[in-house]
Amino acid sequence: MSERIWEKDYGPFRVFGYVAPEEMDIAEIFDDDASKLNMFHLRQDIAYGKKIWVYATARVFCKGVELGDSSIGGLLYKDYDGIKKEIFNEDHQSIVHDALKEARASLNYLKDVKAPPREQLTSQFMEGA
User: Fold this and answer.
1) How far is CA 59 from CA 32, 80, 81, 118, in A?
2) What distance in Å separates the CA atoms of residue 98 and residue 77, rounded to the nearest whole number?
3) Rounded distance, CA 46 to CA 53, Å?
4) C-alpha separations of 19 from 75, 86, 93, 102 in Å
5) pLDDT tens for residues 90-109?
6) Contacts 24+ apart (CB under 8 A), 84-90
7) Which residue, 44, 5, 41, 2, is CA-closest to 23?
8) CA–CA gap between residue 98 and residue 39 (Å, rounded)
9) Using CA atoms, how far apart are residues 112 and 129, in angstroms rounded to an integer?
10) What is the DSSP secondary structure assignment for residue 27, as one 8-state letter?
11) What's the pLDDT score for residue 43?
12) According to the model, what pLDDT value does residue 93 have?
C-alpha cells in the first residue's frame, strides 16, 4: 500500500510522490560481514518506527491523465521528511526528473495521434453495443 507524501507542479504537469514499504531484505544492501552485524539493529529500528525502509515513486499527471512515472528502492531514512527533501525536492537527476522526461515524451506522442472526431467515436461505440 503506497502513501502520497509529496506533490508539486511543473508547468502543465503535476507530480505526486509516493512511498511504500520496501519488499527487499535490508541485508541485501550490505556486502561485508561487519555491516551485516548491524542488520539486527537496523531491523529493530525499522520494526519500532525509528527508521523507514521504503521505495519511492514519482507519478506525473497532466489534466488528470498519468503520463509518466519512475521509482527508486532501497531507501533507508529516519523519516518521510528526509525522503521529501532528498529524493523529491533536491535531487534534480532523480525519479522526478525521469518521470517528467517520460511524461513529456508521452505527451509529444499523444499530440501526434490523429483521433477521429468525437461524433464518429460516439457512433462507433453505439454501433458496437
Assistant:
1) 35, 17, 19, 28
2) 22
3) 7
4) 10, 13, 18, 20
5) 876 689 999 999 999 999 88
6) 84/5, 84/6, 84/17, 87/17, 87/56, 88/6, 88/8, 88/15, 88/17, 88/56, 88/58, 89/6, 89/8
7) 2
8) 32
9) 29
10) G
11) 87
12) 62
Amino acid (1-letter code) at residue 82: G
What's the rounded Cα separation, in Å, for the pair 75 and 87? Answer: 9
| Chain centroid offset of residue 113 CA | 27
The Cα 28–Cα 43 span in angstroms is 12
Q: For residues 15 and 95, is the Cβ–Cβ distance under 8 A?
A: no
Q: Which three cell numbers stand for residue 4?
A: 502520497
Residue 33, all three cell numbers: 560481514
Hunting for cell 509529496 — which residue is that? 6
Distance CA 127, CA 44 (A): 61
pLDDT value, residue 127: 58
Strand partners, 58: 17, 70
Selected residue with higher pLDDT from 112 and 68: 68
Report residue 75 as a C-alpha cell.
531507501
